[in-house]
Amino acid sequence: MRRFERLKKSKLIEELFKRGKAFSKPPLRAIWLEQPVDKGPAQVMFSVPKKIFKRAVDRNILKRRMREAYRLYKHELYGQLGEKRGLLAFVYVSKELSEFKVIDSAMADLIHRLGR
Fold first, then answer.
1. Which candidate among 19, 92, 100, 114 keeps its CA 20 to 30 Å from the CA of 107?
2. CA 28 – CA 47 distance, rounded (Å)
3. Are the beta carbons of 30 and 89 closer than 8 angstroms?
4. What is the rounded distance in angstroms from the CA atom of residue 105 to the CA atom of residue 108?
5. How is the chain split into domains, by residue range?
6. CATH fold of 3-115
7. What angle is formed at CA 36 by the lines to CA 32 and CA 37, rounded to 5 degrees?
8. How does pLDDT run along the chain (116 residues), one tens digit per residue?
């Protein structure tokens, strides 16, 4: 993922979680807010709660799996969005470590829903 595709500004993140629309497909939840961004169709962030996964190793594994699944489907998302621009967050909501296949299918479903 390129640098300009990452969502890092705390004000934007706060606004996303306050005003964004959420879609769920366990074990993931996507939050979308249509808003102009600097470059590219979307700025994205990935989150795994420390409250559920205490060990950083587990959180990092899940974030890597989420980022890889997003990378595989982001060209579809960009094609579906067209001229729309926005902020996007993926939050891991399950209490168990999921295999990549599960995360991949959930990511595919969420991206198809976001495109509509």
1. 19
2. 10
3. yes
4. 5
5. 3-115
6. Ribosomal Protein S5; domain 2 (3.30.230)
7. 90
8. 788 899 999 999 999 999 999 999 999 999 999 988 777 789 999 999 999 999 999 999 999 999 999 999 999 998 888 788 899 999 999 999 999 999 999 999 999 998 77
